[in-house]
Write a structure and sequence with these properties.
By secondary structure, the protein is an all-beta fold. The chain contains no helices and eleven strands. It starts with a strand and ends with a strand. The structure holds FE2/S2 (inorganic) cluster (FES).
């Protein structure tokens, strides 16, 4: 059973501004969207670009390298919903953000 790890303060995770963090050897991108913090693997499934360099638009994370778009609701790729970003459980408590990397 894994234990959630503190990765950032709540203030560091700004609305629609992807933030790269690390937990052990895992690269994670944090995104605050509509007030909620989301956490995905920080690697585009296309060619591995850091998604923390992407932009948020219309509920989607857009990879800056070749423009693939991922729905923030579930991490699915808009071109093929079967392809999803790895998503991690996130919790905010007392002004801090915790991620469970499993
Ligand atoms: S590496 Fe992300 S779209 Fe190509």
């Amino acid at each position: 059973m894994s234990k959630p790890v503190k990765v950032a303060s709540s203030a560091q995770v700004k609305e629609n501004k992807p933030l790269a963090v690390r937990v052990d050897d895992k690269k994670i991108v944090l995104i605050r969207y509509q007030g909620q913090v989301l956490a995905f693997r920080d690697s585009c499934p296309h060619q591995g670009a850091p998604l923390s360099h992407g932009v948020i638009k219309d509920g989607r994370l857009i990879c800056m390298y070749h423009g693939w778009k991922f729905n923030l609701s579930d991490g699915s790729f808009t071109g093929n919903p079967q392809l999803k970003l790895k998503r991690f459980d996130v919790r905010e408590k007392n002004g801090e953000v915790f991620v469970d990397v499993g």
